[in-house]
Design a protein that fits this description.
Chain B: InterPro entries: DUF1468. Chain B: This is Tripartite tricarboxylate transporter TctB family protein. Chain B: Keywords: Membrane, Plasmid, Transmembrane, Transmembrane helix. The structure holds two protein chains of two kinds. Chain A is mostly helical. Chain A has one domain. Chain A is about 70% helix and about 0% strand. Chain A has 21 helices and two strands. A two-stranded antiparallel ribbon of chain A has the order 1-2. In chain A, α3 runs antiparallel to α4, α4 packs across α5 and α7 packs parallel to α21. The radius of gyration of chain B is 25 Å and the shape is flat. Chain B is mostly helical. Helices cover about 60% and strands about 0% of the residues of chain B. The chains are: A mainly alpha, B mainly alpha. The interface between A and B is large, with 76 and 86 residues.
């Protein structure tokens, strides 16, 4: 009851500060734009706005930054669905099925579902942040290097289920991504691996690789098509998904939001991991898992509610313990300290009024996101009506500029181009691109935490089975990895003979990315 | 790729698909072998409890070798597609256009380093539109200029992200 009373007081205080609300609306709108532009992430958006908050009162500054954070995570889904350009790493999972839905002429429904799912996932996460902060923060404290390693392995085990028809090809793509993820500085000793002397390669440039594999590869594929004049007019005939359709996703959204919230609380695991894990679990629980990768609405709902659920989880550990859950909250930590506020248990004791007014404002931010998101979709959908002969060059130019924007580096653009060419050939021969991206995100996390855990246990591998959370996550990971193979064996047994699907042949969907 | 069922219910592979899969598998194996050889030169770790910088790359490369071997085995074992397994009906893909598009993108990047975003981008956009069959030169030039300006406004003006000016103008 204490929390509810404080929240009501906070809401009252918030609505007496119209300027703070206006800044929140500005933050959300800017966040959506930033999220939609390739190369510009929510982290960058928050970092860009950070200096502007210096002269603001704490509530206005923090609300504007929260708005950019929430809008940025959601905004990535718009271009992921419409153009297969994941505006943010979190939207890479959304692009898999979202763009397939666009190709089927269901972009409006996909965008609408993404918006509502983002809203529900994000709102749920803020409520959890408000009511369960102390309890969940204690649980998150249990996570050390070994649990983070197990979580990364669990994330990597998803590769098998996002591989489409050919698990072998998916695993090859995944391990290639893992090998690629070792390029750069060794996480323990700082030794440069496979960098060829290029300092630009000291950190794995995974955003250029992601833009290349998803967006540039798709644009190169468009060049193949001689019938390039046609756009996809009238693809956005309906944005609000029909209730009977959306109702079926509510369980999926609730589960994905919960996953997102828990993953958000774990330091080092951000919205991108939450989106991929939510995708995998939605597929596992689905009655039609075979439709995933071919344009399944449930996949979009899961990814978006998972990614946005992550926001509250990440804020939770940042506010209660001072441990940022991801890169954005790390920058937000800076914003708090700039305002003279010290995150931790004392923040709730000494500045309870401000904290609960901020929580009320975060709920309002999500309402703004829903309104601005739904209001702008039709305008954004007009992009689809452009002829491909204009859209494809525009996408390639956006890929170039978006990649350059990350580090102001021409080197990154060359990496993007190389990834685009590789991605094009991967599409041609049915090697899925998403395992590469997943591996690039989770590989460094797995290696660094494994080696840290090994050092903490004095070189003993006992931590793999003596710590309950680690052991549970690893068992789930093994089961997740085995599930597609077991399903195939089961199907073969049920059919009384070997599957007609040849593992070497891959998908029959010519050039369709997984 | 084709996987039309061959007699006996097994999926079939066209010769070109089989060849392409084998070439890709061999290329990936070559990358994995190179990675293992280079990892051999990584220095040993100073910490007794650490596995060192080479362990993980070697594990990943080793797994790649095994997986590629399985892919090669499956590909060689897969039956051939029946002769009537023709590619799906539809417009013929123009691989030449893709190749020119990739080369044009590389040329644009190369030019951007010298002449900057403002000159390289509109020429690139104009060229790609022409490549994709738009022959209205005036409209193409106008669209290229507008797109260049819009992207510049979004990134450089609104978000203060500096775009390449080119070494000739720095």
């Amino acid at each position: 009851m204490y929390e509810l009373n404080m929240l009501l007081h906070g809401a009252q205080a918030l609505f007496n500060q119209p300027m703070a609300l206006l800044l929140a609306l500005f933050g959300v709108t800017l966040g959506i734009i930033i999220g939609a532009l390739p190369g510009l992430t929510a982290t960058m958006g928050v970092a860009i706005l950070l200096p502007f908050t210096f002269g603001m009162d704490p509530l206005s500054g923090l609300l504007m930054i929260s708005g950019v954070f929430f809008g940025g995570i959601y905004g990535g889904s718009v271009t992921a669905i419409l153009l297969k350009i994941p505006g943010t790493p979190a939207a890479a999972a959304t692009a898999i099925d979202g763009f397939e839905l666009t190709k089927k002429g269901q972009a409006g429904i996909a965008l609408g579902t993404a918006t509502f799912s983002s809203f529900l996932g994000g709102t749920a996460s803020v409520f959890v942040l408000i009511f369960l902060a102390p309890v969940l923060a204690r649980f998150a404290l249990e996570f050390s290097a070994s649990e983070s390693f197990a979580l990364a392995v669990f994330g990597l085990s998803i590769i098998a289920s996002i591989s489409g028809v050919s698990v072998i090809k998916g695993l090859i793509a995944g391990f290639l991504g893992l090998l690629l993820a070792t390029v750069g500085l060794d996480p323990m000793g700082g030794f440069p691996r496979y960098t060829g002397g290029y300092t630009e390669l000291f950190n794995v440039p995974f955003i250029p690789v992601m833009i290349g594999l998803f967006a540039a590869a798709e644009a190169f594929k468009s060049l193949e098509d001689p019938q390039v004049r046609a756009g996809m007019a009238a693809a956005l005939d309906r944005i609000i998904p029909p209730w009977h359709m959306f109702r079926r996703q509510l369980g999926n959204i609730a589960r994905s939001s919960g996953l997102g919230i828990v993953i958000g609380m774990i330091p080092g695991a951000g919205a991108d991991i939450a989106a991929f894990v939510a995708y995998n679990e939605a597929k596992r629980f689905s009655k039609t898992p075979e439709n995933y990768g071919k344009g399944e609405l449930g996949a979009v709902a899961a990814c978006e509610s998972g990614a946005n659920g992550c926001t509250g989880g990440a804020l939770l550990t940042m506010l209660t313990l001072g441990i940022p859950g991801d890169a954005v909250t790390a920058v937000m930590l800076g914003a708090l300290t700039l305002q003279g506020l010290q995150p931790g248990p004392l923040l709730f004791k000494d500045h309870a009024d401000l904290v609960f007014t901020l929580f009320a404002g975060m709920l309002v931010c999500y309402v703004f996101m829903l309104v601005v998101g739904l209001g702008s979709l039709r305008f954004m959908g007009r992009i689809l009506q452009m002829p491909k002969s204009v859209l494809t060059p525009a996408i390639l130019a956006l890929c170039i500029v978006g990649t350059y924007a990350i580090n102001n580096s021409m080197f990154d653009i060359w990496i993007m181009l190389a990834a685009g060419v590789v991605g094009y050939f991967m599409q041609k021969w049915d090697f899925p691109a998403s395992p590469v991206v997943l591996a690039l995100i989770m590989g460094p996390m797995a290696e660094a935490n494994f080696r840290r855990a090994l050092s903490l246990s004095n070189g003993s591998y006992d931590f793999l089975y003596t710590r309950p959370i680690t052991a549970t996550l690893l068992v789930i990971a093994i089961l997740t990895l085995m599930l597609p193979l077991l399903r195939r064996l089961w199907a073969e047994r049920s059919a009384g003979g070997p599957s007609t699907i040849n593992p070497a042949a891959g998908s029959s969907r010519m050039g369709t990315p997984e | 790729m084709s996987n039309a069922p061959a007699p006996g219910g097994k999926a079939g592979l066209r010769p070109q698909d089989r060849l392409a899969t084998l070439v890709i598998a061999v290329l990936v194996m070559a990358v994995a072998v190179a990675a293992i050889i280079v990892a051999g030169d990584f220095p040993p770790t100073m910490l007794e409890t650490d596995v060192g910088p080479a362990r993980f790359p070697i594990i990943f490369a080793g797994a790649l070798l095994v997986l590629c071997a399985i892919l090669v085995f499956n590909t060689l074992r897969a039956p051939a597609a029946p002769p009537d397994d023709l590619p799906q009906a539809g417009p013929k893909a123009s691989y030449g256009t893709v190749a020119i598009g990739i080369v044009a993108t590389a040329a644009c990047l190369y030019a951007m380093e010298f002449v900057g975003y403002a000159i390289a981008t509109p020429i690139y956009l104009f060229g790609l539109m022409w490549l994709m069959g738009r022959r209205n030169l005036i409209a193409n030039a106008a669209i290229a200029a507008v797109l260049t300006a819009l992207i510049y406004a979004a990134f450089a003006v609104a978000l203060s992200v500096p775009l390449p000016v080119g070494s000739l103008f720095e």
